[in-house]
Amino acid sequence: xxxxxxxxxxxxxxxxxxxxxxxxxxxxxxxxxxxxxxxxxxxxxxxxxxxxxxxxxxxxxxxxxxxxxxxxxxxxxxxxxxxxxxxxxxxxxxxxxxxxxxxxxxxxxxxxxxxxxxxxxx
Length: 122
Prior knowledge:
By secondary structure, this protein is mostly beta strands. It has strands spanning 2-6, 9-12, 17-24, 31-38, 45-50, 57-59, 68-73, 78-83, 92-100, 111-112, 116-121. The protein is 0% helix and 52% strand. A hairpin with a 6-residue loop joins strand 4 and strand 5 (45-50).
């Protein structure tokens, strides 16, 4: 299984970025897909996920609500993280992850992507 994340970069506060994560080597539609992030000196935290069946999204980080959207395209085996109104505190390495359909992605992750750096300047 391979997860290839892309789309990170440097953006000014208030700007937008869209991250992509392309999966291969698994039946994509059977798994939860989502994103985590890790800021310097901090633990990795769950950003959100899209479930395998209904396409619902969920967020744990309240600061992401209304700004970040997660979606998936099963035909392309790709999950997206659309980030709008970015803030300097969103600066982190963002990782995509895959989890089993029967468990919360926040709790159980089977595979990880390599991470992509997002830097938001003030």
